[in-house]
Amino acid sequence: MSEIQGLINAINKFRDDRNWGKHHNPKDLAISISIEAAELLEDFQWVSSEEAVKANHENIKEEIADVLIYSFMFCSELGLDVKEIVEEKMVKNGRKYPVGQ
């Protein structure tokens, strides 16, 4: 089992232990990803990137974790292999944006 799959399994166990699975359908997970990403953006609002990171480092870590947790649950719900879809997208991006362009 990959490290990513082990992490997904731990996330799903945490969810299942609390009986939250009924709330984690693709629509609601997509909404949650967007909300958590917006919360991450709040840390950067009205300040420079450097100021935001210095002032909000811990919260930034927590918001990124929330985005990743919901994203991993979303992939799990749809039966998507995280490593595979990221690698496929990188290949596609490599064709779209070749080095030196």
N-C termini distance: 38 Å
Helix content: over 70%
Q: What characteristic shape results from the CA principal axes?
A: globular
Order of helices and strands: HHHH
Q: What is the helix tally?
A: 4
Q: Whole-number radius of gyration?
A: 16 Å
* Count of discrete structural domains: 1
By CATH, the architecture is named Orthogonal Bundle
- Determine the strand fraction and express it as a percent band: under 5%
Mind summarizing the main beta sheet?
A: none
| Number of strand elements | 0
In the CATH hierarchy, the third-tier topology is known as Helix Hairpins
CATH top level is Mainly Alpha
Global mean pLDDT: 96
Instruction: Give the class from helix and strand content and strand pairing.
Output: mainly alpha
Detail the poorly predicted runs.
Answer: none
Q: Output the CATH homologous superfamily.
A: MazG-like
Chart the SSEs and their pairings.
Blueprint: H1 3-17, H2 26-42, H3 49-78, H4 82-96
Written overview of the protein:
The radius of gyration is 16 Å and the shape is globular. It has one domain: Helix Hairpins (Orthogonal Bundle), CATH 1.10.287. The protein starts with a helix and ends in a 5-residue tail after the last helix. Helix content is about 75%, strand content about 0%. The chain has helices at about 5-15, 25-40, 50-80, 80-95.
